[in-house]
Amino acid sequence: MAVRRSETTADARRRLIEAEAAYQRARTDDYVTRLIRDAAIVEAHREGLSSREISELIGDIGQPNVVRARRRAIARREVVPEGLLSPVDALRESGLGVHDFVAAVQSGRVVPVNLADGVRAFRAEDVRALRTAS
User: Fold this and answer.
1) Which residue has the higher pLDDT, 55 or 23?
2) What is the rounded CA–CA span in Å between residue 45 and residue 32?
3) Which of 14, 109, 112, 132 fits a disulfide with 104 by CB distance 3.0 to 4.6 angstroms?
């Protein structure tokens, strides 16, 4: 097992809890929130959190569901055209926390572009505007 850096692990844990709270507030089929949540699960796992700990932090969804979420996030091979950002990249680029970013999407402050097969992405300039507006 890799040595965990407490600050990085604590940050991963905090982001995971925040992502889970945003996920629970959103509709279960909310694509953007689900991608962000799945990415937070992968990040937490990479930082050394066990599937059991992740399950406990996000409401005892069960280890098999944690594993499924990790597989979903890793297996996703969406192609986002140049100039657009995936939801996870848009969150990072915005400089906002999970809750604030999801709130910006839900309020229409930043609007995803609908691509083929239900894939959604964000215009980089729209996301950067969130950073300057905050």
Assistant:
1) 55
2) 20
3) 109
How do residues 11-24 score in pLDDT, each as one tens digit?
Answer: 999 999 988 887 76
Task: Answer yes or no: is 18 within a domain.
Answer: yes
31-46 and 63-75 helices, crossing angle to 10°: 100
Mean of all residue pLDDT scores within the chain: 82
For residue 83, being part of any structural domain is answered with yes
Q: Would residue 90 count as lying in a domain?
A: yes
CB 23 within 8 A of CB 69: no
Total number of domains constituting the chain: 1
110 located within any domain: yes
Helical residues (DSSP H) of the chain, grouped into ranges? 6-25, 31-46, 51-57, 63-75, 87-94, 98-107, 124-133
